[in-house]
Amino acid sequence: MSDTHHILWLNFLQLYVSMAGITGEDCFHSQKLPDKLSLHGTKLDLSRCNITKLQPSIFQTYLNLQILDLSYNALEELDFSVFQYIPVLQKLDISYNKLQTINCNTLQYIRGITHLNMSYNYFDTMFLCKEFASLTKLRHLGLSARRIGRHDFLSISHQELDTIFLGLEHLQLYEPGSLQMLNTKKLHVVLPEMLTNSTLLLYDDFNISTTLEISHLQCDETCDLIIGDIIQKSKISNLILRDITIPWNEMGKILQISWHSSVEHLFIYSFTFIKNFNYIPFDFSEGSLKSLTIENVIPQVFLHSSEKHPLTLFSDMIIKNLTISNAELTHLPCPGENNIFQSLILTNNKITDGIFTQCQTLSSIQYLNFQNNILERLSSIASMTTMMKTLKHLDVSLNRLYYDFSATCEWSQSLLFLNLSRNKISDSIFNCLPNNLEVLDLSSNQILSIGKGVTHLKSLKELYLPSNQLSHIPDCGFFSKNLMYLNIDENFIQSPSMEQLTKCQNVKQIIVGNNKYQCNCELKAFISTAEVLQGNLIGWPQSFICEYPQELKGLILKDFHPSEISCNIFILLGLIVGTMVLLLIIMFFLCKYFDVPWYIRMILQWLRRKYRLKNRNNEESIIGKCFHAFISYSQQDYEWVQNSLIPNLEKGDNSIKICHHVRDFIPGRTIIENIINSIEKSYKSIFVLSPNFVQSEWCHYELYFAQHSLFGKNSDNLILILLDPIPQYLIPNKYSQLKAVMKRKTYMEWPKEKGKHGLFWANLREAIQTNIPLEDEDIFVFT
Ligand SMILES: *[C@@H]1O[C@H](CO)[C@@H](O)[C@H](O)[C@H]1NC(C)=O
Ligand SMILES: *[C@@H]1O[C@H](CO)[C@@H](O)[C@H](O)[C@H]1NC(C)=O
Ligand SMILES: *[C@@H]1O[C@H](CO)[C@@H](O)[C@H](O)[C@H]1NC(C)=O
Ligand SMILES: *[C@@H]1O[C@H](CO)[C@@H](O)[C@H](O)[C@H]1NC(C)=O
Ligand SMILES: *[C@@H]1O[C@H](CO)[C@@H](O)[C@H](O)[C@H]1NC(C)=O
Ligand SMILES: *[C@@H]1O[C@H](CO)[C@@H](O)[C@H](O)[C@H]1NC(C)=O
């Protein structure tokens, strides 16, 4: 047989090698079998995988497994030693398999188990072998059987169970008193399809627990007899009916029976009502029922023809707590005069604004929950509460509520808790709030800022504003002194202000994480304040994360340290100004001690000359020239010219020829004639400028220069050497050419420092150096 058996290899290595042909294959490929990462997971769902056998090593890699679901498989035998590798296993579901026996010796391997569900297997009897006594932590046990004997539960009789589940659909034999062995808080049974002579006394033993759950009840008529029989015999105080499909009027009958019984709390989960939907007259005298909870109702009949609404069965009920949830309820009639409702929970329905309008009878209601309905106008809900003088808690979250400014707004003054989360509330809400509120939940709405209206809430202790559109931390000065909790998580706050945060320092818990923080200098103050207030700041530092700028996205605010310099405008300014001053000082010293400007001027002049030479036809300008330079100077500067200028230019090598009037002027001519001749015969003209020169010589040139506009286009034939500074006042107004020269500073300045003389001469020589085809001095005649 073994090779036809489909064997489950969970061990991964083996898994990949031998996958083909395993019937559990679908579960391997589906999400059911977690990948390696979640091997650390605590939960594993292997239900409906057609598993027929568990390999001994199967759970070796799942050391942390706490919850294992093996239901709806095809296990025929089970050796609990496969669980020896998972000592932390707490919940094991092996219901709906094909087990016929339990290997009792191996039960020791699941000694830590708290939940064990063995129901719906092929066990013939419910016999629990003595080894079950070792499962001392067991709290929830699921079983099912065809036959139950008197000693079947003996081994667990000393255990205090929370729940025992008994699937007894196919019960054939029940030995009276068998269940009396059990010690459990809750008994959950699926009733036998019918009682026979051999199982007749089953219900007599339902008195073992105070809570009884009956599931899968289906009956068309006389359901009340079955339930009545059970209730009567069991004296339970909590009755739970789950997955029931019965006519509406049978439901009424069951309610009526429960009303006159020991049952205090009745829960009906997953109730499908069929056949009829009509008003049922009800006897409300002497009820013991305190609360009724109905969840998940599937109505198969909608229309009713009765004069009174069928739902008055619930609204007229004289009980403290009523819950009708997920029942497609659009409306609930206003309760009768003598109602004692304290808590009404009508969540997950389709209730509209008309609910309880003008309903004055809810005079002891304290807790009202309309979560997840289709309420729209907040003003209607507010005025509804004005009739409820004792209402403390109102939950209208998950509706479509908005507040229209123009509508009047009156609330019950007793209201302390208001949950308006997940609606369409905007800033106008602050004009419509009950004054005595202590807790206000406005999460997930469309609030942009907090209005002054909030100052009226003098008792406010907790304010929830996460997931709105706030762009600033609200001014805590607006809030009551009692405010202890302020939640503005997940808003649009970019640059929270340090001042506003400081104002909130009396709030014990502030939640302002997960906002869109812009990490720049402005945030610095906030961050340091946050560090100080971190005891109050919930989620600091891990939920305070930079959103902008892009390169800082994801950085924790605590780790954002912009430099002191880049953030402090004064330091920054000081730094810039300081640098400039320093530069100026350096410049000043350079100029003062090294005369940098002089060098620069020299270099510029040299460069300019180079440039001009390049761009000019040199040949033309030297035609007919006999001298490299003509020198003009004042007699007072004769010494300098004779001893410095000429020797340094001529250098004794004849490469440069100077026209020096002392030796080169032709006698018999006027000075002017001589000068003009000399200038025209010379490649360049050098003027040694000094105060003396201006006073004594310049008069000869001024006119000539003006006539030939030499300072205009041909100024590069002129070389002006400033021997001594010439103060402006020394230059007479008529010398406009000279004034222009001095203004433009197109002269070479004679440096007083010896060190600079070399450069000066080199520059000067360079200026007048050219290849003049010099003729013999004797032949040279002025014409
Ligand atoms: C289990 O086996 C049944 C019949 O052999 C088949 O119809 C079903 O698809 C299988 N389910 C899985 C999860 O392999
Ligand atoms: C056991 O399994 C059955 C069927 O899956 C379920 O109805 C019952 O609630 C379970 N009982 C416990 C105690 O887990
Ligand atoms: C059940 O017991 C009653 C008497 O207690 C007897 O009249 C009836 O015939 C029995 N029914 C069956 C099916 O054995
Ligand atoms: C339950 O009923 C049986 C008789 O049917 C009785 O012997 C037992 O004492 C009762 N147990 C409780 C807890 O009332
Ligand atoms: C009834 O309602 C009150 C007030 O909401 C609550 O404290 C109490 O737990 C409820 N009781 C039941 C059984 O639902
Ligand atoms: C308000 O209702 C929402 C669900 O609608 C819930 O998550 C939230 O906890 C409630 N607020 C308070 C303060 O209980």
From TrEMBL:
Keywords: Disulfide bond, Glycoprotein, Immunity, Inflammatory response, Innate immunity, Leucine-rich repeat, Membrane, NAD, Receptor, Repeat, Signal, Transmembrane, Transmembrane helix. GO terms for molecular function: lipopeptide binding; Toll-like receptor 2 binding; transmembrane signaling receptor activity. Residues 1-24 form the signal peptide. GO terms for cellular component: plasma membrane. It is found in: Membrane. The keyword Thylakoid does not apply. Residues 625-768 form the TIR domain. It is a single-pass type I membrane protein. It comes from the Eukaryota. The chain crosses the membrane at residues 569-591. One of its GO terms (biological process) is innate immune response. SUPFAM superfamilies: L domain-like (SSF52058), Toll/Interleukin receptor TIR domain (SSF52200). Disulfide bonds join 334-359, 409-432. Belongs to the Toll-like receptor family. This is TIR domain-containing protein. It comes from Engystomops pustulosus. The lineage of its organism: Eukaryota, Metazoa, Chordata, Craniata, Vertebrata.
